[in-house]
Write a structure and sequence with these properties.
The complex is a heterodimer of chains A (257) and B (348). With 257 residues, chain A is of the alpha/beta class. Chain A is built from nine helices and twelve strands. Chain A folds into two domains: 220 residues, Rossmann fold; 34 residues. Helix content of chain A is 30%, strand content 29%. Chain B is built from 14 helices and no strands. The chains are: A alpha/beta (257), B mainly alpha (348). Chain A: It holds the Pfam family ABC_tran.
């Protein structure tokens, strides 16, 4: 599913948080959002999900304006994993993932065997199958994060929006998650902090002060000049002798002035 | 596969019917107990006789005075108690789920105080007429109080503690307004009556009140039942509910409207009875879990039974005297409130 945004703007308390962002993400593409803290990555994702009512501009899915699609229909096409998800309700891991079926159920379409199978599959995909009866309050940050991703998968969306999904995860689960995202036949927009992980995306958009200042293939984007200008770091591009992939190594430039 | 699905669906539905029937039996037994027990306990046989006479026209041998006590006094009183208990418990449950606050309850958030003010204003100043007029006044007061408390909580930063503090401010304001109206306009006898009613009192309840309380409780219950999945989706907050496909605004308006209606009508009938909305949903979460499919019917049933029990206790606690029912619910509710506070200490 193609997701496009034109002239997105969001102002809050007199501050411009998103300042005229245009985007066009092709079906099946994995699009990475990078940028320093506070550059507007999370807010842009919320705008793409249609969660900010005050936003100006337009988001569309396959050419249909998001504002004219009922919420339930949006939730069947597009799933979002925000950075923070907390509850004090005493839910089991499995019940959290079951929430993902909400947009598909109604009084006429009650929970069925198919829903159970989809939830099983989603739990399996994030490696939480064995912990499905554990209460939410006993799970670690990483386990909660994986459950939220499973919940999003259980929505069976065609667009997946992920806000720094590798936060809280140990390195094994970070790599497993990125591989899962790459293999999914979905359009994915993913905000990432780790620029080496961002190199795995099809395309990258660089956010700075609410604007998208660069957009293109990772190799064109992650250049020493841009990294110095936007992220205020120096970078050296190294080659991993094992498989010849490129790796960025960063060094501080502000203290060495 | 299809067969398995059909068998599964049949099993699911039969389980549902069994549970519904069980719930209704428990409710009927509670109502029966509420009618039998009182200052002077009446034998089951007499109660059965009167009910059979009134409902099916069976021949009756019961003394007309006893029959009058059963039919005109205890039965409507017990039915209104059940409706109020269910309505207040559901109100508390919905508020706790929607505002994501374990301490949300119509009494603590000042909604009941606003309803009292509205009801008193109508009673004393004679705006409108009869039970409907008083309920309409209570609804306006409840809605106003809710609006003010919500706006204040938001202006104060919208935290869990802020909401409860805003509720205290709202309760104080509306209780002061109530006292002001009474001092300004009521004569001594009216004032005494109103003060007694404010503490919660089912003594004056008659059949017309049943005709108001029962439909409102049923409408409130239905509003909750059709939004069971939406309520579940609020587990991770309103934003998460929206991304799960819930039309958050519409659901909020519908459910908070139902809460305001239920609280207003119940308060206008029996006074500001506190803590049911707080205690019952928490107890039910402990028993049936956090999912609203079980929580909504369980809370409605337990609220009804709890209120009937509180009413019976209020009648028999001091012989020859009726303790206000709000006193009984507060004696149980305040310690429970303390318990919930302590349990939530790490989450605030």
């Amino acid at each position: 599913m193609r997701i496009t945004a034109t002239k997105l703007v969001l102002q809050a308390q007199g501050r411009t948080i998103i300042d005229g962002v245009d985007l066009d993400i092709a079906p099946g593409e994995t699009f990475g959002l990078i940028g320093p803290n506070g550059s507007g990555k999370s807010t842009l994702l919320r705008l793409l999900a249609g969660l900010e009512r005050r936003a100006g501009g337009e988001v569309s899915l396959d050419g249909h304006n998001l504002r004219r699609i009922p919420r339930r229909e949006i939730a069947r096409r597009l799933a979002m994993v925000e950075q923070q998800a907390e509850t004090t309700d005493c839910l089991s891991a499995r019940q959290v993932v079951e929430l993902g079926r909400t947009p598909w159920l109604s009084a006429l379409v009650p929970w069925g065997a198919k829903d159970t199978a989809i939830v099983d599959e989603a739990l399996y995909a994030v490696g939480m199958k064995g912990m499905s009866s554990r209460p939410w309050s006993t799970l670690s940050g990483g386990e909660r994060q994986r459950l939220q991703i499973a919940r999003a998968l259980a929505q069976r969306p065609r667009v997946l929006l992920l806000d720094e999904p590798t936060n809280h995860l140990d390195i094994h689960h970070q790599l497993a998650l990125l591989r899962l995202v790459e293999e999914l036949p979905l359009t994915v927009v993913i905000a990432l902090h780790d620029l080496n992980q961002a190199m795995g995306c099809d395309r990258l958009g660089v956010m700075s002060q609410g604007r998208m200042v660069a957009c293109g293939k990772p190799a064109e984007i992650l250049t020493p000049d841009l990294l110095r200008a936007i992220f205020r770091v120096g970078a050296t591009l190294l080659t991993d002798p094992q498989d010849n992939t490129k790796v960025l190594r960063f060094h501080d430039i502000e203290n060495s002035r | 596969m299809t067969e398995a699905v059909i068998i599964g669906a049949v099993a699911w539905h039969s389980r549902l019917i069994v549970r519904l029937a069980l719930g209704l039996v428990v409710l009927a037994l509670a109502v029966l107990a509420g009618v039998i027990l009182g200052e002077t306990p009446l034998p089951v046989s007499q109660v059965g006789d009167v009910l059979a006479h009134k409902l099916w026209g069976a021949a009756s041998t019961v003394d007309p005075i006893d029959a009058g006590i059963i039919w005109n006094y205890r039965l409507p009183r017990t039915l209104v108690a059940a409706a109020c208990g269910a309505g207040l418990a559901l109100s508390g449950l919905v508020l706790q789920t929607l505002v994501r606050n374990a301490l949300a309850d119509p009494y603590l958030l000042g909604v009941s105080a606003g309803a009292s003010t509205g009801a008193v204003a109508v009673t004393i100043m004679g705006i409108g007429a009869g039970a409907i007029g008083i309920s309409a006044g209570a609804f306006a007061g409840a809605a106003l109080a809710f609006g003010i408390v919500a706006a204040l909580a938001r202006a104060a930063g919208g935290g869990s503690g802020q909401l409860v503090l805003a509720g205290i401010a709202g309760s104080q304001l509306f209780n002061a307004l109530t006292s002001f109206f009474i001092a300004k306009s009521a004569n001594a006898e009216q004032a005494r009556g109103i003060m007694f009613w404010l503490l919660g009192n089912l003594s004056g309840v008659r059949w017309p009140d049943v005709g108001l309380a029962l439909p409102v409780a049923v409408v409130g219950l239905l509003a909750c039942v059709i939004h069971i999945r939406a309520l579940d989706a609020f587990s991770f907050g309103a934003s998460a509910a929206a991304s799960l496909g819930i039309a958050v605004r519409r659901v909020m308006v519908m459910l908070l409207g139902a809460v305001t209606l239920m609280t207003a009508v119940m308060v206008s009938l029996v006074g500001a009875v506190g803590f049911i909305g707080l205690v019952v949903p928490h107890a039910m979460r402990f028993l049936v879990g956090a999912r609203h499919g079980a929580l909504v019917p369980a809370s409605a049933l337990a609220g009804a039974v709890f209120m009937i029990a509180a009413d019976v206790v209020s009648r028999v606690l001091i012989p020859g005297q009726v303790v206000p029912i709000g006193v009984v619910t507060a004696l149980v509710g305040a310690p429970a409130f303390a318990l919930i506070l302590i349990r939530n200490r790490n989450r605030a």
